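Side project, low priority. Logging it here so it doesn't get lost.
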Amino acid sequence: MTDPRDTQGIEGAETDFRGRMAYGDYLHLEKILDAQEPLSASPDELLFIIQHQTSELWMKLAIHEVTGAIAAIRTDDVRPAFKMLTRVARIFEQLNNAWDVLRTMTPSEYTRFRGALGQSSGFQSWQYRAIEFLAGNRNLAMLKPHAHRPQIIERLEAILARPSLYDEALLLIHRNGFDIGADALRSDWRETRRPSEAVIAAWRKVYRQPERHWALYELAEKLVDFEDYFRRWRFNHVTTVERIIGLKRGTGGTQGVSYLRRMLEVELFPELWKVRTEL
C-alpha cells in the first residue's frame, strides 16, 4: 500500500517519463557524473577532479560569452556586450569561490595522489588559453603545450586570426572619433600589442566626460570588472597552490608558485589601468 505522504507537495508534477525527456536526459547527467575516474585510492582525488572539471565547464561558458561580446562590439551593438561581460565577471566569481573548496585539501592529502597525475597540469588547459587569447593576451609561446592536439591548435589559431575583445573595444572608440594611434592600423592580430600613449589619451577623454561618452565609459568599466575578477582568480590560484604544494615545481614542469606570481603582473587591458593614475 502506498504511503500518502510520498506524494505530498507534488500534486500536478509530471512523474511518468516513459518515452519522454526528463531532467537527467536533457542535461546528459550520465555523461557528466560518469566522467570522474580517480587513478588512486585517495578519497580526496575526487575533489581535485570535480574542481577542475567544473572549472572547465565555467570556462566554456566564459568563452561563449566573450565571443558573443566581441561580435556585438564589432557591430556597434554594445548593450548586449555589457550584459555578456557582466556575466563573464560573475563566472570568474564562481571560479574564485571554487578555490575555497579546493583549499580544504591539505598537503598530506594531495601527496597521496599527486603522482597519479603524471605530467598533466592546469597549465595545459586550452580553454584557459582561449580566454586569454580572446581577451587580448596573445603570448604565442602558449601554443606549445597544445601542439600535440591539431584540432585544439586550429581553434586557438582561429581566435588569434581575429581582433581580441580589447582590440574590438579600441576599434570601437576609434569609430567614435578618438585617435588611438597605431592601433587603428593593425592588421596582424597575432602580434602582442604594446600599451599606447594615444590609447591612454583616448580613454582619458572618455573618463573625463562620462556623460558625453556613456557607452564607451560603461564598456571600459565592464572590461575592468572582467579583469578585476580574472586577477582575483589568478591570485587565489597562487595562494591555493602555495598552500598545498609550497614552492615545489608544478606537475606540468612549471616553476609552480613563482611562475604563477609572474602571471599576476600580466595586464589584459593595460591602458584602462594606467589611465586611472592620470585622472
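Brief comment: DSSP finds twelve helices and no strands in the chain.
Revisit when time allows.
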